[in-house]
Amino acid sequence: LVTYEEGCFxxxxxxGLARQRSGTFVHKSFIHVQWPIYQLKAVLERMNEYENGLExxxxxxxxxxxxxxxxxxxxxxxxxxxxxxxxLLITPTILxxxxxxxxxxxxxxxxxxxxxxxxxxxFERLRGRPVHGPHRWEKYWETISMALKVFGKGKVGVHLxxxxxxxxxxxxxxxxxxxxxxxxxxxxxFFPEKGSLLEDLSRPPMGQYRRIQLARFLIEESMxxxxxxxxxxxxxxxxxxxxxxxxxxxxxxxxxxxxxGCPGKDGKVAxxxxxxxxxxxxNIRNYPFAPNSEDISRIRRQIWEY
Length: 306
Prior knowledge:
By secondary structure, the protein is of the alpha/beta class. Helices cover 34% and strands 11% of the residues.
């Protein structure tokens, strides 16, 4: 996470780094994780020390006009030390296509874009003018198109947060849209940050999150599509559009419920983000490891909780 004393210029209603959240930037948390601040030199030294245990590096940007040039410099410093795959979680609001071209030329191979909210209305209400924020829905989708043009199909991931006020049908609509663009969805469950504008909003029910995880996996594996899903009168997923035995096999694999993110050197998901959207314990939302048989039994029950 590239940090600045003045922090982030955005003011997203759910974010721990929001501009108007009380406290100094250095004491703020990001998706419930403390991000200790170190000099880049120290990070590179430690990275070299443990490189055999690393699969991928990710640089995350704040909404700060300095960030683009600094990210270019950081990529260059990292590339001078290692050839590990390198992702960027970028902020479309402060970027143009030339920035993406520079990122790729320096050695980044994948792009992440955090749209977060599933509908234009939610995006505007939680990230745009009503909260005095700079972000615009159209700019984010334009940047996804630019990133696909620069980095290629399958090299762009879109972050979405379940539980910001959308229905399951609305979330699956945008997941299908991302898939149709030859991009991937990186899924999060809303987890309220103390001091944020949404600190009193409840987390989404576990059943809601599990159904969306499962449907997302099936769409990304081209086993089903939005048009094959069935929804009830409250726009909750009722059926997934594949035979029951196939559905059970996918559930029992545990894969849909693991952290979704960029791959490592071996082609498997390298990102694990442990406890970014739930606390340690039996009800992990995104498993940073393969769920065991006890976990799978619990997940099977949770999927059908309405």
